[in-house]
Amino acid sequence: MAIRLFNPLTMDEPRKLGITLVMPSLIIVFGFLLFPFLYSFVLSLMNYDLARPRGNGFIGLGNYIHLTQDMYFLNSVVVTLVFSFCSVILEIILGVAIALVMNQDFKGRGILRALIIIPWALPSIVNASMWSWILNANYGALNALLSQLGILHGYRPWIADPSWAMVLIILTNVWKETPFTVIMVLAALQGIPTHLREAAVMDGAGAVRRFIHVVLPMIAQIVMICALLQVIWSLLHTFELVYVITRGGPFNSTDIIPMRIYWQTFKGLRFGYGAAMAYLAAIALLIPAVFYIRSAYKTTVE
Amino acid sequence: MRFVFKRFTFRVFLYVAALLIAVWVLAPYAWLIISSISTKIDLLNVPLKWIPSRPTLENYRSLFADGQSALSQGMSFFSRSMLNSIIVTFSSMGICMFFGVFTAYAVARLTFPGRKFYLMMLMGSYMMPPIAIVIPGYIILKSLHLLDSRIGLALVNITFILPLVVWIMRGFFLSIPLELEEAARIDGSSRLGALLRIILPLSVPGLVSAGVFCFIASWNEYFYAFLYTSMRARTLPVLIGEFTTKVGTDYLKMAAAGVVASAPPVLLALIFQRFLVRGLTEGAVKG
Question: Can you tell me whether residue B131 is helix, strand or coil?
């Protein structure tokens, strides 16, 4: 009897079976994510310095108070917001534009649709290293190309220039992330019934009005989901791009939050302080995350 | 006449745009591949020669030949990293596919208390930025003596792959008509029997999609591997990062290693594109 009760192969009652099947992954999710996340909060209330363990212990909100006065951290917040905002705007505009082109009928469309997935599939560290090589001041392909085309006279150290460094980090991120938007929007475009478009043509609507009144409403939801995902990913999931290409420099101009946390925690060995930074950033990320969960839940359920 | 002209300019515009997109997507990766078969002399030449005068596989050969030591157990550092990548990827993939399929079935088909809450938790964990848990994770792995081990890294990878599998498979299960399952149950099959005999065979595209997603996510993962592994268990992405960030940057080796490391995910994505696109759109996930 006891065996029957706990044997999922014969168990048919949905409540019990459901809980049994979910249990292993529930344990994994709780054990590997929720527990560290709570542990992180505890750490953030402590002075946990591996280099100077003498003063370690509970310090309440000390780390958080320190954060509000840490100019490096405040700089990182601004840098991260600029990076994320510019990346997402470009990814969405470019993504929708490319998807509109690729939704047209032309020779080689199938090949182009296949190739667009390459940047998405590329390991992000390969993306970062590849661009670091292209942007290299002395031997990089960008300098070579621009000077051979006569646009540039003499090689430029792009990455050493604070404003160019940020622009280039954003552009390399856009190169890797835009194909995701293209793929999602293209799928949505193909879902638009042709009779809708034809009806609009019959009514004498031009291309611009057709886009605004017929196409845009049909892809609005998917564009929204893409934008939210890109915001979430660009805010706190980006690391290797900056780590490899600029290491946060020059003059902290590309010092995004994950970089700052990395320096403080794994180079400065101030685990408590790093945890406070990470915790604050993760809580802030909840805002776009909640919006994403709601819209993704809606699209996949309905 | 005016209409024909307008049509013609539109076609021209379309092909120019398509060409620009193709160049934009391909040029950087093509340059990585060209660099990997070039010699230092060609690449350091000013003005730069875009086509190598003497293409060579020397960079690839040196990856597999250089750096044998006791630390990497007689293999080159590169081979060792590749082996680590393969072991970590396939073990975390196997675990996630096994548990993920059952969990996805439960949240797609069964009503049980806390189902909605669990789904929300799962999505939350999918979006959890690694940076938020990487510090306690480090302390936990250290106390378990799992730093710089394949097992430790495989366990960590499960945290972001499992939610992905559940979310993608749930989308596929929802699209399978309920009647099929009910018919099997009337014939005396248990729920899990119906899942294994009726639903899974119909979900092969979903399984392929989830499997490829798992592979790419785990194979490409850098951040955890970078922080949690070193000489013994470092994966290919970590080694590639070292070619460009450590003293004595070696772009030629980086290019060759980058091509080798990116070949499996890129080829899989090209081959299974249809499945991946369906997984992306149905699950509304980023991969």
Answer: helix
Single pTM value for the model = 0.90
ipTM: 0.91
Domain that holds residue A271: 73-301
Asked if A289 reaches chain B (Cβ–Cβ under 8 Å), the answer is: yes
B32 contact residues in A (CB cutoff 8 A):
126, 130, 133
Mean pLDDT of B229-240: 92
Domain end residue (candidates: B19, B35, B56): B56
Check whether A76 has a pLDDT greater than 80: yes
Q: Which residue of B has its CA nearest to A138?
A: B44
d(CA A299, CA A276): 35
In a domain, B64, yes or no: no
Using a CB-CB cut-off of 8 Å, the residues of chain A touching B193 are 9
Q: Identify all chain B residues contacting A135, using CB atoms and an 8 Å cutoff.
A: none
Indicate whether B109 belongs to any domain.
yes
User: Where residue A175 sits, what CATH number does that domain have?
Assistant: 1.10.3720.10
- Helices in chain A by DSSP H: which ranges? 2-6, 14-29, 35-44, 62-69, 71-102, 109-115, 118-121, 124-134, 141-148, 162-190, 194-202, 207-210, 216-236, 240-245, 257-262, 271-301
A191, burial (CB in 10 Å: exposed 0-12, middle 13-18, buried 19+): exposed
